[in-house]
Amino acid sequence: MTTPVVAGYDLDVLDAELEGRDALDVIDWAAREFGDDLALSSSFGADSAVMLHLATRVKPDIKVIAIDTGFLFPETIRFREDLTRRLNLNLIVVRPRIPTEVFLEEHGKMWQSSPDSCCAMNKREPFDRAKRELGIRCWLTGIRREQSSTRRATRIVQQDHLGLMKICPIAAWTAKDVHYYLLENDLPYHPLRADGFLSIGCHPEDGYCTTRVKPGEDPRAGRWAGFDKTECGLHVHEQGAGI
């Protein structure tokens, strides 16, 4: 297997060096290494306040890229607005090339027939476009190993499908770690979490893509009901990703 290399970095060596390091130390390394070419992706999901708070502690003006698919919960939009004000985020909201109304006219309820294609158009394309247009060389994400089987082997340092470095500073954190960090820093969960939504994505008119999680299920079990799918694609279309 070829060792993944990004702009001269040996990712296997770097991953070994950063594994076990404090999340703030990992973010600090990335901020010093990439400066303004560093970004944080955020879904403004259940516990997104953790990574937003950590990243802005290190680099207050870090670019925060959020994808607005046109099908978000109203609560997610309000949560995004609240955290943006509270943390003074340098927020960049990106949207699909096709407006929601046109998408529905042309493709109907694609999320029911071909959810991978729906995610490709409404999530992956806008995010890839934003990374290119902003000149991003490295991006941070808050995914964690215990969230689902598809994330269990997540490395701290990865390479995405565009050849950019991707860093997961809290990959090893548990739900308990998240809870206590939020508590200690007076930070909120997404408001829908208290209603049983442990992983929060799109919410089209039929509520198809995000449902409540049953007791004992992993946090992403409520996504894309009826399909063998727990990822939108932002975190599984990488090279040397370890997932």
Task: Draw up the topology in text.
Elements: E1 5-6, E2 9-10, H1 11-18, H2 23-34, E3 38-41, H3 49-58, E4 63-67, H4 74-87, E5 90-94, H5 100-107, H6 110-113, H7 115-134, E6 138-140, E7 157-159, E8 165-167, H8 175-184
Parallel strand pairs: 3-4, 3-6, 4-5, 6-8
Antiparallel strand pairs: 1-2, 7-8
| Number of E strands | 8
Tally the helices: 8
CATH topology: Rossmann fold
Main sheet: strands, sense, barrel: 6 strands, mixed
- How far apart lie the N and C ends? 15 Å
What form results from the Cα inertia axes?
globular
Query: What is the structural class?
Result: alpha/beta
The rounded Rg comes to: 17 Å
Query: What do we call the CATH homologous superfamily?
Result: HUPs
Strand content: 5-15%
Q: Kindly state the mean pLDDT as a whole number?
A: 87
Q: Which CATH class applies here?
A: Alpha Beta
Please describe what this structure looks like.
A hairpin with a 5-residue loop joins strand 7 (157-159) and strand 8 (165-167). This protein is of the alpha/beta class and 243 residues long. Strands 5-4-3-6-8-7 form a six-stranded mixed beta sheet. The two termini are 15 Å apart. The chain contains eight helices and eight strands, in the order ββααβαβαβαααβββα. It is globular, with a radius of gyration of 17 Å. It has one domain (5-195): HUPs (Rossmann fold, 3-Layer(aba) Sandwich). The chain has helices at 11-18, 23-34, 49-58, 74-87, 100-107, 110-113, 115-134, 175-184; strands spanning 5-6, 9-10, 38-41, 63-67, 90-94, 138-140, 157-159, 165-167. Helix 2 crosses helix 3. Residues 237-243 have low confidence and may be disordered.
